[in-house]
Specification:
This protein is an alpha/beta fold and 620 residues long. 27% of the residues lie in helices and 28% in strands. It has four domains: 212 residues, 3-Layer(aba) Sandwich (Rossmann fold), CATH 3.40.50.300; 86 residues, Elongation Factor Tu (Ef-tu), domain 3 (Beta Barrel); 104 residues, Elongation Factor Tu (Ef-tu), domain 3; 179 residues, P-loop containing nucleotide triphosphate hydrolases (Rossmann fold, 3-Layer(aba) Sandwich).
């Protein structure tokens, strides 16, 4: 049977991101590019001409209106959103992303430039290289955009002075060298008049290079696209009928061929590609960014978010990544606060464990004293996820090396990250785990015991301390080793240096989980009594125990807030209501209930009934 080729699209397609400071003329340049290359429909031109006359812009047609689509943009004369336009010449097809120039909308540039092959950075010949120029050049470098064009605009306003052009070129070259931008091309243009945009201009006889459009037509992007690492196929959807089982998605790297041996991550299951189905039928090979359905020779448990790749060049499976991140939210980054991380087709909870440094885009110097990131700031961070990821370094694969963070409450995107190290080493370097002289099996057998962790969580005054004490007493009376790790007691010693902010709460849970793991390994049934208000922290605690083969039982005391406040044995709710205790769970900070706790205890169960519920689960 004849097969079809669903390999990558031809190199005729070029993705362009434009950026620059406010009023540098980005929208006008793109309007001129579209207008002079005959890519605008007649009715759209009539509309732009009519709007220009109503606004009294002084020109027959304000070409910036072609790309400035939002009403707010047209009223303010600035670009806010990312405007995408498509056009073609006989030599190449183009996708244009007109990204914002105002510093407030830097995050939009990250979005628009994330898939670009070339960045066109506009610089006003009169103002020269400004902070926003350096910011956009930095983002272009971080996003790995292989080609940069510096369009030095408004040359007509400096009488096409070559000295002004050379000054901008010299200043930007310093920035490019520090950012290691390798392919940088400089073109003098007048977007308003159309000089050197589509056609060469006689106004600058000293410039012998091609106009902008011709240069864009000649850029070779094949080499950069070939640098796409090993085969990567993140599964987006499982297609299943009575006679068919396939895994649909978009090829994110390398190539997939029928007959290739593959491994499914993070499970590690192996198989062989038996068939590849494209939009028009079966194919022998699929290259990025083809959307296909892959069939495997074996019936494996594959789900959305899993990765199909070649065993010989599989990525590291990890829950720790080091990344350069652009913060996009009005509210600053909170270390230790849980976010939703989206990587490829996979979603998981994540926390920023550490901010290594923040980049000063004015000086291009990294500040190691930074403790957080504000809106539009860029820095290096350590991210820890609840579920395992299969990331690549961004320099190896721009799809599998990138992620976004989403606020769990507002569902807004708060950050975009480029992974620099898919598996950073632990912070304690040059240490090796020292095995003991006894195996766990031998220890437990000799002591006639079995270790486990009972993790009690709930609002303050929900009854955790009462239930933990009753569980400890009952277990010991039954001849079993048990010990309570109470949150308040731990803060008198081991965790006495921690406060109650998100980062300290996360560290409180982390330390407690590792102590519980060691006690459980020794054969003790550890009863942890800790508010632990966030799911991601509890999930990480569970993984600390279960990764080491130990039982973790989550016990949620589902006591309503009004009942907890009515009890208030320590008077903490009353003080929190007066504003004396900030970040108090239930008042100043939300509590995230478990979604799949092994045991749920409610007030009507009583202490004895709750003890029996937990012991029944423990005996399973």
């Amino acid at each position: 049977m004849a097969t079809l080729d669903v390999s990558a699209p031809t190199v005729e397609l070029l993705r362009i991101a434009t950026a620059g400071s406010v009023d540098d003329g980005k929208s006008t340049l793109l309007g001129r590019l579209l207008h002079d290359s005959k890519a605008i429909m007649a009715d759209q031109l009539d509309h732009v001409r009519a709007v220009s006359q109503r606004r009294g812009s002084g020109a027959e047609m304000d070409l910036s209106l072609i790309t400035d689509g939002l009403r707010a943009e047209r009223e303010q004369g600035i670009t806010i959103d990312v405007a995408y336009r498509y056009f073609a010449t006989p030599r190449r097809r183009f996708i244009l992303a007109d990204t914002p120039g105002h510093v407030r909308y830097t995050r939009n540039m990250v979005t628009g430039a994330s898939t670009a092959d070339v960045a066109v950075l506009l610089v006003d010949a009169r103002a020269g290289v400004v902070e926003q120029t350096r910011r956009h050049a930095t983002i272009s470098a971080l996003l790995g955009i292989p080609h940069v064009v510096v369009a030095i605009n408004k040359m007509d306003l400096v009488d096409w002075d070559r000295v002004a052009f050379d000054r901008v070129m010299r200043d930007f070259a310093i920035v490019a060298e520090r950012l290691e931008l390798r392919d940088v091309h400089y073109i003098p243009v007048s977007a308003l008049e159309g000089d050197n945009v589509v056609s060469s201009s006689a106004a600058a006889p000293w410039y012998t290079g091609p106009p902008l459009l011709e240069h864009l037509e000649e850029i070779d992007v094949s080499a950069a696209r070939a640098r796409n690492g090993g085969a990567r196929f993140p599964v987006q959807w499982v297609v299943r009928t009575h006679t068919y089982r396939g895994y649909a998605g978009q090829v994110a790297g390398g190539e997939l061929r029928v007959g290739d041996p593959v491994i499914v991550l993070p499970s590690g299951d192996r198989s062989t590609i038996s068939a590849i189905d494209g939009p028009e039928g079966e194919t022998d090979v699929a290259l990025p960014p083809a959307s296909v359905t892959v069939r495997l020779a074996d019936d494996l448990d594959v789900s959305r978010g899993d990765l199909i790749c070649h065993p010989s060049d599989a990525p590291t499976v990890t829950r720790d990544i080091e990344a350069t991140m652009c913060w996009m939210a009005e509210e600053q980054l909170q270390v230790g606060r849980p976010y939703l991380l989206r990587h490829g087709t996979r979603e998981t909870r994540a926390v920023i464990e550490d901010v290594y440094d923040r980049l000063d885009v004015e000086t291009l110097v990294h500040d190691p004293k930074a403790a957080t990131l504000q809106l539009n700031e860029i820095g290096r961070v350590h991210v820890r996820t609840s579920a395992a990821l299969t990331p690549d370094a961004y320099t190896a694969n721009r799809t599998m090396g990138a992620f976004i963070l989403v606020d769990l409450q507002t569902r807004d995107t708060v950050a975009a990250g480029m992974i620099s190290d898919p598996a950073p080493p632990p912070r304690s370097a040059n240490v090796v785990w020292q095995p003991g002289g006894l195996t766990r099996t031998k220890r437990w057998s000799s002591l006639h015991t079995t270790g486990a962790c009972l993790w009690l969580t709930g609002l303050p005054a929900s009854g955790k301390s009462t239930l933990s004490a009753a569980l400890e007493a009952r277990l010991v009376s039954d001849g079993r080793m048990a010990y309570v790790l109470d949150g308040d007691n731990l803060r008198h010693g081991l965790n006495g240096d921690l406060g109650f902010g998100p980062a300290d709460r996360a560290e409180n849970v982390r330390r407690t989980a590792h102590v519980a793991r060691m006690l459980a390994d020794a054969g003790v049934i550890v009863v942890v009594s800790l508010v632990s208000p966030t799911r991601v922290d509890r999930d990480l605690a569970r993984q600390v125990l279960e990764t080491d083969g130990l039982s973790f039982i989550e016990v949620w005391l589902d006591t309503p807030l009004d009942e907890c406040e009515r009890r208030d044995p320590k008077g903490l709710y009353a003080r929190a209501r007066k504003g004396e205790i900030p970040n108090f769970t239930g008042i100043g900070q939300a509590y995230e209930p478990p979604v799949a706790a092994e045991v749920v205890v409610r007030p009507h169960d009583g202490v004895d009934g709750a003890v029996e519920q937990v012991l029944r689960e423990l005996s399973r």
